[in-house]
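To the team - coenzyme A complex, inputs and output below.
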Amino acid sequence: MKNQPLKIILSKFDEKRFGIRTAHAANITQENLREVMDFCKANQVVFLVARCETNQLRAVHSMQREGFLLMDTLIRYSVEVDKIAEAPDIEMFPVLPVQAGEEDAVRAVALEVFRGFRSHYHADERLNPEKCDGIYASIACEACLNKEKTSIVHVCKIDGEIVGFDILNSPSLGVGEGVLKAIALSVQKQGVGHSFASPKKAWYQSQGALVAFGPTQITNIAAQKQLISQNYLPYDSIYTFHKWFD
Ligand SMILES: CC(C)(COP(=O)(O)OP(=O)(O)OC[C@H]1O[C@@H](n2cnc3c(N)ncnc32)[C@H](O)[C@@H]1OP(=O)(O)O)[C@@H](O)C(=O)NCCC(=O)NCCS
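Output:
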């Protein structure tokens, strides 16, 4: 697999939430790690979220020597869009694009589902857990309000109530990626998540996406089972480290 170029940015989103100057770096290798450290120094970064592919072991060892701590491991699944399996023979619930005014209902599902979630933020004992709980609710709400960035938020309703959502990124160069999905606790493990498969496939096809990615934590068995049942297969995996500079 070819290395992707280093991406490093200051995160206004995290800085606002935690009140700490934060940067996010992705695709770290042994060769570009110095550039990451220099960027953080030049920008007075206090908190760095650092990601690298799991095969970059020399970079991992260098980061460990510099005091980076492992917070989670992501596994990305991929599928050819035409091969996304429609839901199996179970009850389907209506799934539609989110409507204006439904963002608070989406936020409420996210707040409930992601409280104490196993995210890299929650794994860091230096971050306030309550502030971590709200991160995914903010992402979900923002996605409903600012669709140019995320492109589509599908919501599932039972008896007229929103019980789940699935946020998909705008496909670029024929490649789409899932951002965030959640099913309300009261209806989890009942197959509700499957109701999103057909609308997702149809939307990707309408946007010209040929391939779709689905990232999740390696510890998230439910999410992985659901991706596998839709014909996704493992593609790559990524470590998330945190580095504190203070
Ligand atoms: C992951 C999630 C979207 C799955 O939706 P769901 O409607 O509950 O899932 P389903 O009922 O369709 O179950 C999918 C599979 O996972 C299994 N599963 C569900 N919950 C599980 C759990 N807690 N532990 C282990 N397996 C689980 C089901 O048995 C099913 O497997 P099967 O097809 O072999 O029977 C939902 O559990 C959720 O919102 N989780 C919290 C948020 C999250 O993890 N989002 C994804 C990461 S962005």
